[in-house]
Structures are given as C-alpha cells and as structure tokens.
C-alpha cells in the first residue's frame, strides 16, 4: 500500500513539472559575479586517506561488493572494527562501507546507525560526511520520516558545491509529502 502511495505521489509531482517550470532570468541590477563566486567557495579541506593497511583491506573488499557478496565483504571489513591499530579515518571508511552494505540489503536501521557513526566520528572528511547525509536523507524518506529527510537534505545542500537535481527532486517530494506545496514547488523548479 505504501509503495502504491509513493508511486502516485511521485507520478503526481512529475506530472506537475510542466506546470511549474518556467524560465527564470536573474535580475542583473546589483548582481555581483565576484560575490556569487565567493559564496560558492567553501573552506577547502584535505581528503583524509585511510592507512596503507586499511587501503589494502578496502581494495580486497571491492570485488565482494561488486558481486554483492555481502557476508564476505563484512568479514573482510570486520578487521578494521576490531584492531586498535586502525585510525579514526579507517573506522569512518568502515562505517561508510557498512552503511552501504546494509542499505543494499535493505537493513535500513543498521545503515542509519553506521552513517550516523560516520557523521559523529572525527575521521571522515567533508565529502564523505556529505555523502552520508544524502544517504541518511534517502533512508529517512524510505522510512517515511519526511521531516528528517528534509533536515538531512538541507544540510547536504549547504555543504555540497553543486547539489544534484536528484537531491532537489527528493527534497521537493519530501515537502510534498509534508503538504508544504510552496516549498515543494520551489525545490522542483530548482531541480528542473
């Protein structure tokens, strides 16, 4: 039943796209290109790389992930979680991969736990944290917690240099579910 409702809502949003689309021409009075560029510039941070030992483990796990051999992938990754020699960055990668595995297996609550651990750890770089926020938004949407989905998506947009139309569409659909049609329209227009 929930699947049917979601399908109808998404079909409705898509069918309304032609009604809400219009060409938006920016007003050039007072438009400052440098100010716009400065606004887009974010604090640059270095990507945190996993240790060499963790890199070898992550390379070993890739074929298992590609073949969707989840049990084997978890067994290989378990070493990072148990050995105290691994860094916070290594553990953040572990949380990322475990979140991905649980998401793929539709074990949504476990995926949420892993992605939230990643966000709360000090080992994840900005890009990985933002990817986790987007995944958490998707998971909240799947669980019909649209307010939480919007919360994560707004954080994702704030931290993303070039947010995708997929993200804007998802937030528009979440606002639609919350019956905030004005915000839904705004975000679907941005997506288009």
Structural write-up:
- InterPro entries: TPR-like_helical_dom_sf, TPR_rpt.
- The protein has 192 residues and is mainly α.
- Among the domains are: 49-114; 125-191, Serine Threonine Protein Phosphatase 5, Tetratricopeptide repeat (Alpha Horseshoe).
- 73% of the residues lie in helices and 0% in strands.
- It is built from 10 helices and no strands.
- It has helices at 2-20, 33-40, 52-66, 70-82, 88-104, 108-120, 126-142, 146-159, 165-177, 181-191.
- α4 packs antiparallel against α5 (88-104) and α7 (126-142) runs antiparallel to α8 (146-159).
- It is elongated, with a radius of gyration of 20 Å.
- Residues 16-33 have low confidence and may be disordered.
List the helices and strands and how they pair.
Blueprint lengths: L1 H19 L12 H8 L11 H15 L3 H13 L5 H17 L3 H13 L5 H17 L3 H14 L5 H13 L3 H11 L1
Helix pairs in contact: 3-4, 4-5, 5-6, 6-7, 7-8, 8-9, 9-10
Oligomer: single chain
Amount of helix: over 70%
Radius of gyration: 20 Å
Number of strands: 0
Number of helices: 10
> Spans with pLDDT under 50 lasting ≥5 residues?
16-33
Kindly report how far apart the N and C termini lie: 29 Å
CATH superfamily descriptor of the domain at 125-191? Tetratricopeptide repeat domain
Summarize the biggest pleated sheet.
Answer: none
**Name given to the CATH architecture of the domain at 125-191:** Alpha Horseshoe
Mean of pLDDT = 83
**Which fold name is given in CATH as the topology of the domain at 125-191?**
Serine Threonine Protein Phosphatase 5, Tetratricopeptide repeat
The global form is elongated
Structural class: mainly alpha
Question: What's the CATH class label of the domain at 125-191?
Answer: Mainly Alpha
SSE pattern, N- to C-terminal: HHHHHHHHHH
Pfam family, one: TPR_8
């Amino acid at each position: 039943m929930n699947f049917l409702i979601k399908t109808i809502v998404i079909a409705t949003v898509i069918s309304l796209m032609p009604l809400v689309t219009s060409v938006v021409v920016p007003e050039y009075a007072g438009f400052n290109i440098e100010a716009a560029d400065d606004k887009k510039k974010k604090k640059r941070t270095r990507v945190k790389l996993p240790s060499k030992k963790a890199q070898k483990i992550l390379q070993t796990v890739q074929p298992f992930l590609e073949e969707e051999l989840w049990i084997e992938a978890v067994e290989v990754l378990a070493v990072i979680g148990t050995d105290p020699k691994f860094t916070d960055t290594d553990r953040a990668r572990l949380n990322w991969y475990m979140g991905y595995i649980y998401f793929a297996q539709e074990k949504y609550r476990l995926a949420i736990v892993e992605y939230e651990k990643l966000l709360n750890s000090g080992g994840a770089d900005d890009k990985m944290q933002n990817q986790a926020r987007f995944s958490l938004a998707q998971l909240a949407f799947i669980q019909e917690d649209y307010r939480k989905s919007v919360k994560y998506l707004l954080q994702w947009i704030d931290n993303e240099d070039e947010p995708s139309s997929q993200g804007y569409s998802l937030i528009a659909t979440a606002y639609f579910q919350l019956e905030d049609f004005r915000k839904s329209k705004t975000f679907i227009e941005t997506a288009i």
